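ESCALATION

Customer reports they have been waiting on this structure for their group meeting. Please prioritize. Original submission:
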Amino acid sequence: MKIPRILVIAAAATLSMLSPAAAQKPEPLPVMASFSILADFVRAVGGERVAVDMLVGPDADAHVFTPAPADARRVAAAKLIVVNGLGFEGWLDRLLKSAGSNAPVVVASRGVTARSNEAAHDHDDDDHDHDHDDDHDDDHDHDDHAGHDHGDTDPHAWQSVANARIYVGNIRDALIAADPAGRAAYEANTRNYLGQLDALDRDLKETLARIPAERRHVISTHQAFGYFTEAYGIAFKAPVGVSTEQEASARDVAQLIAQIRREKAPAVFLENISDPRLARRIAEETGAKIGGTLYSDALTKADGPAPTYLDMMRHNMRTIAEALAN
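Update from on-call: job pushed to the front of the queue and completed.
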């Protein structure tokens, strides 16, 4: 059967219109994040325009991460690298050097007012409002700290939602610089996500404000919650400093146990990245109850209770509020 010429022309015209549209759909921008919380921020801002990989995955501890040769190859394939900075990734400089990457590195914490390690180690002071290290220059993001030591800075800035807003703005700007054609999408995604962060921040403040003042102090496994304390008024003490690679001395543990008994801290919390045995021992020796598991430095897998940053902060809020309610 002979096909009418007009149909052939119409079909060709339709294909000519479809083909450019198909060709215009960009390949996702390959982005490497240093750990799971940053990867979640990148996905929230980047949407379908990014393909996000991460070096330290769910439930894994970035403090003790040791890059493998395969990680260097993954970094070399990325067009943008997103890191926390503030000394969190003590292994980063060596990895970037071995990868030979020329990709831009965005320091997500740039612009955050950093807390000092001295404040993070102070177990005796519940009031951390004076602990900001205003003189810290966030340009020290690639300082080559020995091992996984964080130097003078507490790197866990994402534990304040106000700081998470800064992270997201930095990631948006870096994605726009790497992929200018995606500006409208990145800006729209960011507006939507910032709205969700604002709602989260309000919920945290309102929920935790209802906890009686005498019960607003708890024990965690390591000092990851200093920014949370400043933002939401729940004082955390821990036998280990800001890096889980440090070990608690017998003297530190004894002092902490004595302080818990003296102040009658109501709960001890486990963390998904830390060995729970020390926290359980402290709970047994002080009579404080195990309040549950908090998520500090890593998200969970998709089927866990904290697969996104929003989920993580809400889980921690509920867990703390329930443990301290009675």
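Sent to customer with the following note: The chain is about 45% helix and 15% strand.
Escalation resolved.
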